[in-house]
Amino acid sequence: NYINANYFFNYISYSLLSVIILGMGALMIVFNNRDLKLRNGCSPLTATNINLQFVMANLVFTFASWAMMVLLCLIIDFKNGFSLNTLCFILNSLIFAFCSASISYLIGNLVKGQNALPAICNVVALGLSFISGAFVPQELLGASVLKIASFTPNYWYVKANNAIAGLTKFDYAHLKPVLSDMLIVVCFAATFFAVALAIGKKRRYA
Asked: Structure pTM?
C-alpha cells in the first residue's frame, strides 16, 4: 500500500518549491545587485564561467534540499523504502526539484527586493499546490480547476505520483503514462530556465 508515500511525495511539491524559491531567490537578489555585477564584470573570470559556477551552486542547493526530504520519507517508511514504486516516486520528485529550481531561477531574475520574495513564494507555492491536487486529491477538484492546473508542472508531478501509487507492473506499457508526465515536467523546467536566461541576459547590467 503506497497511499501514505503518495501523500508524502505530493505534499513535498509545496515544501520543495517553497524552500528552493526562498533559498535561490535570496541568492539571486544578491547576485543580481548592480554593483556586484559590475565588479564581477571587471574580474578575470568570464561571464560564462561566473554564471556556470552560480548555476552549479544552485543545483547543489536544490539537490541537497531534495535529498533531505527524500531521506525523511525513507526513514518514516523504511519497509517500502526500496520498492520499485518508491524508487519511481523518488525519480519523479528529483525531476520536480530541478523544475522548481528553474522556476526559482526565473523568479530570482524578476524580483528585485528581499521583502517581496516571501510574498511571491507563498502565492506561487501555495497557489500551485492547491490547484494541482497536492493538498486536495485531483478527483475532488472541478474540471475547470484541473484545466487551469494542467498548465503548471505541479499538476503533472502529482498526476504521475497518483499513477505510480497504483502500479503493480513495471513494463513499458504500464510506465508509459508516468514517463509521459515526467517528460512534461522536464519540458516545463527547460522552458522556465530558457525564459530566465533571456531575462537575465537582458538585465545583465541594468
From this structure: 0.89
Residues 60-112 pLDDT 10s: 999 999 999 999 888 887 677 678 899 999 999 999 999 999 999 888 888 87
Round to whole Å and give the CA distance between 12 and 52.
28
- What is the Cα–Cα distance from 156 to 184, expressed in whole angstroms? 7
Q: Are 132 and 13 in contact (CB under 8 A)?
A: yes
Q: For the chain, how long is the longest CA-to-CA vector?
A: 58
pLDDT tens-digit map of 4-47:
888 899 999 999 999 999 988 888 887 777 776 767 667 676 76
Residue listed under C-alpha cell 517581496: 116
- Please write down the HEC assignment for all residues of 64-98: HHHHHHHHHHHHHCHHHCCCHHHHHHHHHHHHHHH
- Give the residue from 131, 150, 97, 117 showing the smallest Cα distance to 25: 117
Residues 6+ apart with CB under 8 A from 56: none
